[in-house]
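Why does residue order matter? Because the sequence determines the fold. Keep that principle in mind as you read this record.
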Amino acid sequence: MSITVNRAQSLKTGVEMQSMLFEKRFIKAVEQFRAQAALPLRIELWNGRQFDFGSEPQVRVRIPTVGALRYFISPNLSKLGEAFVEGHIQVDGAPEHVFKVAEGLARSVAQKFPSIFHWGTRHTRRIDRAAIEYHYDVSDDFYALFLDPGMVYSCAYYQTESDGLARAQTQKLDHLLNKLRLKPGEKFLDIGSGWGALVMRAVEKYGAVATGITLSRNQYDYSRRKIDEAGLADRCQVLLCDYRDLPGSRVYDKIASVGMFEHVGLKNLPVYFSTVHRLLRDGGLALNHGITTSDVRSGWMGLGAGDFIDRYVFPQGELPHISLAMEAMAGSGLEVLDVESLRRHYALTCDAWSKNLEKNSIDALRIAGGRRYRIWQIYLAGCAYGFSKGWMNLYQVLCSKSCNTELSGHPLRRDYMVAPPVAWA
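Structure:
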């Protein structure tokens, strides 16, 4: 009996010593943070102790157990995000204040612990399909809580900051199709067609014959149903297909890829753009609309943000710098005709999505559960913050085949790309 008691006492003593050590290291880290910069943050511990990092706290973090202190010793955005998603901490505060605080904490130790850059993630057909299914096949009902009625899940196009999300998304579809100069009867391909809004717009407004491809079973089923309901099945189709498996050569007059090449992988960019080149007719146009990193080395976003997204949101995702994307285009026989940054547009888009999700939090929790809801809370609000700060960018890049040296009939000016505002009741 005495041996059992002594062992229990030893374990208790060990836990207490470990708790004291964690708390001591945490207090030391707090002192270092305070010495570097003031932050509008208050941290409350399980034992009632409070630590203010500035004179007017706008964010309150409650740490319910001693074990959760480890997230605040040499923190980065991935560790802090994990603590929130897994329910190890509770956070109160407006999203913009929360991310300002998180960035401040991460930057305070960034020089000691530089970011690890991801390059060379494997992108087989099986791995890519699994990654797409993880992200997109949550539930159509869940995405409908924060997307516009057309279920457009990509950067919108705001003619003014007061535009509503639905209007801005319709303007984006037209902005993209106007750049491609899509005409009646032309064969149009959308690589990564989402829930089908772009292919349907291409048929209904521009008179094209449209094909979309996706790896998401949910999106595939949803798109086909919407196409059938709209009576467009004779001119519009969606295929459950990997871009590498599309057959043929010089098949399409116009090609768009919207929010898809982030999933391709850095090493596969030549394969991806070579596929676009193969499928595009010689006089055709292609447009790539995608997120890029602001790091010229094409590394993940710094401060641990990329690690969080890779783990919780976009497995296998890799963001190229725009220079790497354009180099891969040129190496695949594509000539860049026009480049437009929509970084500020995506900050507005993600902010609208984030606010919609918060507004529909009860339904989101019911559909997705607490953990996945918290992932999307931090992801959408974090992307709004990241795009506003220039951590990443969004570019639309218009191109043609390099052999199309004369670009017969292509306008000399960019005026044609600017569509008149969409009429709304």
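DSSP finds 13 helices and eleven strands in the chain.
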